[in-house]
Amino acid sequence: MKTFAELGFPGRLIAVEGLDGSGKSTQIYLLKRWLELQGLKVFFSEWNSSELVKNATSKGKKRELLSPTTFSLIHATDFADRYERQLVPLLRGGYIVLCDRYIFTAFARDTVRGCPSEWVRGIYDFAAMPDLVFFFKAPLETSLQRILDGRPQLKYFEAGMDLRLSSDPYESFRIFQGRILEQYLAMSTDFKFLVIDASQPIEAQQNIVRDLIASKLDLNKYMKLKHSKKP
Predict the structure, then answer these.
(1) Residue 64: pLDDT above 90?
(2) Least buried of 47, 125, 132, 135, by fewest C-beta within 10 Å?
(3) How far apart are alpha carbons 105 and 114 in whole angstroms?
């Protein structure tokens, strides 16, 4: 699978991956603001956010109706809708597209939920590879504590409760997210993840991310066009 650069797209896609509570969403938000302040053309997209699909996904989760296969297919539909209607057109337009999770989230989660790895990857074979993928590697206990610092309890699917791993949501989280971490680590070499130590201070992580992007992309290519003033 080729990257967008290898396919000749003028724009570039940067994705972040990590466990729930790894801090990746904070990092991509800070990155977005940094790029925007430099006057660059930037678009942000997050997992499971298609207007066409997310209501159905939400209802299915609330009623606990989603089997592993259904769960996988509905997220693939969400991704395909955003890919065709947002990501590809903007990349053709020379934007830097930032994705909070990309197809690797499905590769990890759906496989852990019992879907065959080859089948899951086949569903997404229409998608090009990101030009850069940052993986924020955080210890399980750190991720769990960060989530609980923001809200009183874990979400049902976030903790993997649908898999009946444990009746204790915290123990279920540790088992489920631990298995997802194993999937990510197995993918990190094949897909050339840029692994960031997510236990570092937020500012330190962000500086590493910015330095890597500045060294790998010619950011001047993605400046917004400035209208010249008429004399």
Answers:
(1) no
(2) 125
(3) 14
Output the six-digit token pair for 106: 């499905």
Domain boundaries, the chain: 12-218
Question: Cα–Cα distance between 195 and 98 in angstroms, integer?
Answer: 17
pLDDT at 2 over 50: yes
Buried b (16+ CB within 10 A) or exposed e, 167-180: eebeebbbbbbebb
Using one digit for the tens of pLDDT, what is the confidence trace for 109-144? 999 999 999 999 999 999 999 999 999 999 988 998
Number of DSSP helices (H) and strands (E) in the chain, helices first:
9, 5
pTM for the predicted model, two decimal places? 0.91
| Residue 99 to residue 80: CA distance in whole angstroms | 14
Closest CA to 76 of 23, 115, 21: 115
Three-class SS of residue 13?
strand
Class of domain 12-218: alpha beta
pLDDT band at 229 (very low <50, low <70, confident <90, very high): very low
> Please, what is the Cα angle at 200 between 198 and 203, to 5 degrees?
105
